Amino acid sequence: MQRIDRLLELLLGGLLALMVLDVSWQILTRFLPMSPSSYTEELARYLLIWIGILGAAYAYRKKSHLGIDLLTKALPRRLRKKVEFLTLALCFTFAAAVMVFGGVQLMMLTFELDQLSAALNIPMGYVYAVIPLSGGLICLYSLHQLLQLLGVTGAAEDHAGRPEETASVQG
Question: Which of 26, 118, 145, 168 suits a disulfide with 69, CB 3.0-4.6 Å?
Fold first, then answer.
């Protein structure tokens, strides 16, 4: 799991660096005598989409998504574990059905229709590929957390965050 985390961190860092270079080039070409670059705005948009959606999977892994835990913290420990199990199962189901299955459907449809981006002229299926990729990561992370909750895997291997903590709004 740590290798996947590290690979995702490197990918997100690389995409961010590429976006910084892309936007810097766009700004530079606006002020030089040559004409402004025609593809940089679209590339920055697609990089931001990839960073945002992959970043959501990364935040899910690190348990840093915003969560309101006022009610769950008031529950008895046993019931709290059941609610946590249900929440993880629902996250897995959503990621599998909507992001993986729906994302693959969307991706394949755009490939079949030969839908191309306006400036870069690349198949839009590549842009949409981030949806099932991120959904697959969320499914993997959900399964891992479910197994930890059931005591099948140890928390020692999990460096993603503190097992009992989530980012929360406390009232």
Answer: 168
C-alpha gyration radius of the chain: 20
11-55 pLDDT, tens digit per residue, is: 999 999 999 999 999 998 888 877 778 899 999 999 999 999 999
Q: Convert the pLDDT of each residue in 119-161 to its tens digit.
A: 999 999 999 999 999 999 999 999 999 999 998 876 545 444 4
Q: Please state the φ and ψ torsions of residue 168, each to the nearest 5 degrees.
A: -145, 160
Please, what's the b/e burial string for 118-135 (b: 16 or more CB within 10 A of its CB; e: otherwise)?
Answer: eebeebbbebbbbbbbbb
